[in-house]
Design brief:
It contains six helices and no strands. It is mainly alpha-helical. The protein folds into two domains: 38 residues; 73 residues, AhpD-like.
Length: 115
């Protein structure tokens, strides 16, 4: 796993490159991020816990580092973070199992001579 400080340094440099290459898009993305993360019906801690679950599902180590840090600053406990990750794992495993429907349908089509 990438060292945390190296990871933070690397992502900071990558954001700078994106800012130079596509400044309007990055500005729009930051506005979008700010609006989504602004507390409305969900507080920031809850939103960060959701972010942790999603970034674990998408497998982004830089995002994991960022959102665990932000969630802890918002008062999330290690237990809440672990539960968010477990919840993401549950969703991913269920989704994987449900894809078996596609495998079944494909096999049925083959048996009918349609595949």
């Amino acid at each position: 796993m990438i060292d945390t400080l190296a990871r933070r340094s690397s992502i900071t440099e990558r954001w700078k490159v994106l800012d130079e290459r596509i400044p309007e898009i990055m500005e729009g993305w930051r506005r979008f991020y700010g609006e989504v993360m602004r507390p409305r019906h969900l507080d920031r801690k809850t939103k960060e816990l959701i972010m942790i679950a999603v970034v674990h599902a998408t497998g982004c180590p830089w995002c994991i580092d960022t959102h665990v840090t932000k969630a802890r600053r918002e008062g999330a406990t290690p237990e809440e973070i672990a539960e968010a990750v477990a919840t993401a794992s549950l969703v991913l495993s269920g989704s994987t199992l449900m894809h078996h429907v596609v495998a079944d349908e494909t096999q049925e089509n083959i048996e009918r001579g349609e595949g």
